[in-house]
Amino acid sequence: MIQMAKPQIGDDEKQAVMEVLDSGILAQGPRVKAFEEAFAEMCGTRYAVATSSGTTALHLALLANGIGPGDEVITSAFTFIASANSILFTGARPVFVDIDPRTFNLNPDLIEAAITPKTKAILPIHLYGLACDMDPILRLAEKHGLALIEDACQSHGAEYKHEKVGSFGTGAFSLYPTKNITSGEGGMITTNDPAIDEKCRVLRQHGMRRRYYHDELGYNFRMTDIHAAIGLAQLKKLSKFNAQRQANAKMLSEHLKGVVVPHVPEGQTHVFHQYTVRVPDGKRDALRTYLQEHGVSSEVYYPVAVHQQSFYVSELGFKDTLPGTELSAQAVLSLPVHVGLSSSDLETIIAAVNDFDLGR
Ligand SMILES: Cc1ncc(COP(=O)(O)O)c(C=O)c1O
């Protein structure tokens, strides 16, 4: 069976972990610092703050931008639940704006109508590895004095007009094992703002500026040196991994028939955390079953948009209608695109999709 993901853990990662274990410094030590510095350099930001997950990175990024009870944060509902839940953790409320169904990212043309006196931030999500259309989002954030928090959890190294995602506002990345690079579990916050950097560091460690003096409510969102050692070894391979994913995606896009292949707008790069096609005419689930029977895994990211999750409807009273989001949830299918695929795996995926009767 060709799997959806295969973490690329080699001798470098194993050796790095052994060195940490031998060093006796296991949590938030020199490897975390080195990983933060290298990540900031990759991203082109002044600072990076390591956390325990992408979710905790988002949570701290929002808190550090002053988001709290009574505030509204504009975002997309076509995402992993953590993007919206992290807004809820702060006491704020997500306000969902529809996506552009060609890119699956926030449609910037619809944002301004959603801004109210309570709006404090825009949280664009660079979904599947494709950078959002940032210029109009930046213009709106500036015009209305809103914070910008980028959910870059799926898009390490992706660029908008030659600038890396995570460098436009406060960035939040996930280092979960299926991501383009991993630390096992882990997250990273990126920023150019020294005040945001400092706030994230303090909140990550129980609101502590001086040892055992606690000025505010904080958390334990630290990263271990074991995770950082893996992440640091992986970060060195990010460009190579992204290039391989892009080559795999190119091969798929050139040969797949009957499905709508990913659209990459001019000036935006796609690092293909997921390779997601749109399957026409309600045939998505049948194609998925067919692929499974022919040795190819696939996945639906995401079958239920956030505003339609039962908790959001019954507990939080969301009643939005988001046509682009809802149609996409019915039609999308992600195919394997990871670095561990061989040419023959790619041929198998292409043959399986093309052999299925899509009514062409
Ligand atoms: C878009 C998005 N946001 C947030 C997260 C949360 O990251 P983590 O699983 O590391 O907490 C993920 C992870 O899958 C994600 O895909």
Summarize it.
With 360 residues, this protein is of the alpha/beta class. It is built from twelve helices and 15 strands. A seven-stranded mixed beta sheet has the order 1-11-10-7-6-2-3, with helices on both faces.
Structure description:
The strands form 5 sheets. Strands 1-11-10-7-6-2-3 form a 7-stranded mixed beta sheet, sandwiched between helices. A hairpin with a 2-residue loop joins β8 and β9 (163-164). It is of the alpha/beta class and 360 residues long. Helix content is 38%, strand content 15%. It has 12 helices and 15 strands. It is globular. The longest helix has 18 residues, at 238-255. The structure holds pyridoxal-5'-phosphate. Pyridoxal-5'-phosphate binds at residues 53-55, 79-80, 82-83, 125, 151, 153-154, 174, 176, 187.
Spans with pLDDT under 50 lasting ≥5 residues?
none
Ligand types: pyridoxal-5'-phosphate
Shape: globular
Overall SS class: alpha/beta
Strand neighbour order, sheet with most strands: 1-11-10-7-6-2-3
| Order of H and E elements | HHEHEHEEEEHEEEEEHEEHHEHHHEH
- Could you give the count of β-strands? 15
Cα-to-Cα separation, first versus last residue: 27 Å
Give the strand content: 15-25%
Report mean pLDDT, rounded to a whole number.
97
**Percentage of residues in helical conformation:** 25-40%
